[in-house]
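Re: the multi-chain job from yesterday

Posting the exact lines I submitted so nobody has to dig through the queue logs.
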Amino acid sequence: MSHANGAGQPAILVEGLTKSFGDVHALRGIDLSVPRGTVLGVLGPNGAGKTTAVRILTTLLLPDGGRAVVEGHDVVREAAAVRRSIGLAGQSAAIQEELTGRENLEIIGRLYHLSRPEVRVRARELLEQFGLADAADRTAKTYSGGMQRRLDLAASLVGRPRVLFLDEPTTGLDPRARLGMWDVIRSLAAEGTTLLLTTQYLDEADELADEIVVIDHGLVIAAGTAEDLKGRIGGDVIEFTVPDRSRVTDAVKAITPIGEGEPHADLETGVVNVGVGGRGSDALIEAVRSLDAAGIVTRGLALRRPSLDDVFMALTGHAAEDEQQNGRRRGRRRSGDKETTGATS
Amino acid sequence: MTAIAEPTWAPGLGSRIRWGISDTLTLTKRSLLVWLRVPAYLVFTVIQPVMFVLLFRFVFGGAIPVKSPGGYVNFLLPGIIAQTAAFSTFGTAIVLAQELKKGVIDRLKSMPIARSAVLTGRLVADTGRMLITILIIVAVGYAVGFRFLNGAGLAVAMVVLATVFGVSIACISAFTGLAIGDEESVQAFGLIWIFPLTFVSSAFVPIATMPGWLQAFANNQPVTYVVNTMRAMALGGPIAANLWKSLAWIAGIFIVFVPLAVRAYRRAA
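And the result, structure tokens for all chains:
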């Protein structure tokens, strides 16, 4: 792309970005730098400030302070130029359900001032690329959730953006559609598009991003590769529930020698977990033995990959506060911060 | 690190206007396509007004004595056209609220299109829709006995006035749709102001039949001025006084609500 800016300059540069809505400080001074052709994963719970950051970078919202530059253009002073460089796919499918997939893309193409033949070619290309060729002439209302998101993503690419913003691209999708979306995103990254992707899921950031920043309460609390972050958590996690709440403390004692750090226990729900590093199944067997030896009945004892909660526990000492309904995390607020590990920071 | 200006990003006024019109037409076409695809929208904009004509003509009409030449059906038609023009802007508010919620407006705002095109495209499409509905009502009116008594020129003027009035109301609706941003609330709020505004007027009954306190409102609100003007255009009688008051109201609505709608669009999140 012949562009006026130096090749060494990052595609996205953010310095000290702040934004408040009344008393709510959505962003409290964020710094980011995304080199051209790389994928940045912005990881954080609902309300962390991810969407606010994306909205400022895509010129939908004015920042209160700091600055943000996309492809060399300031998002406030040169908003029109920024809009020519970017694509945005949000948390919901911003498509016209009453129109067909093809019509949706062709209208966007017309808005990018492509000629009629160009519009047709571009729409066909994208429909094929996103596995929607067979459904091209059906109204988008008949599409599955995954297809609608793919169409939405295709729409964001009509203008061949150099920088693409994906705000929680897989939220609300079933696991299969989610994997399909991952494939599509990976192929975009492989083509050299600079991507900024927000997500609540560590595994998603792990799969797709070159670099990850973790944000919480409007601040960047950690940055690095997925491996860096996982190193801080201590690998896999053993988790189980103790139905008899009076035995939770005994269970913690029984598994303490197995863990890499201190176990976390929630005295209300009886959920206990502990990081076990790379010792996975060996640690699981030890845990079963020692819990059994202590005569503790458990439910759902399992080894799992570290979750966003674990990242947050490790980085901040508190669980990811998820304001929205999310059954998986609800009610798992830990009882005492004093129990959290000293593994990091 | 200052960005180097690229000439293609600062197009001249001429091409800006050309693209503005092109973007508006693209978005107009999109809105009309959607309208044609959804049976419920068609029913709401066509069947409902026709039903109103028939109900008032044959059910309530006999009980409403009027002095208009040609009887109640002639009295009714201008009123029902103005009411329909106002009601059709429910669609404007609801669709904008839906698009806001679904992120369609975010997508469009993040694209390099003319900033005004989303609103103007919506208004042009809704004006087209409104005009079609008005013409259908005139046709149905003719079938049930309505006649223009004042010549073709003034008949056209009546349709134009109704449409311009409808567009002014559409600006209010666009503002409410974008400012409230929730489909159900927008609908509920629409009922609260559009119903009284259209029914407590000279649209369906002579105002003299209302209690005094209600007459005070009915006599001094825009729908009455517009309907009285339209009636005079269609059936004869003095036009000027009511026309000036109508135009003053319409201009006032534009002056207040166009900036409000634009501001709500800019802020819409």
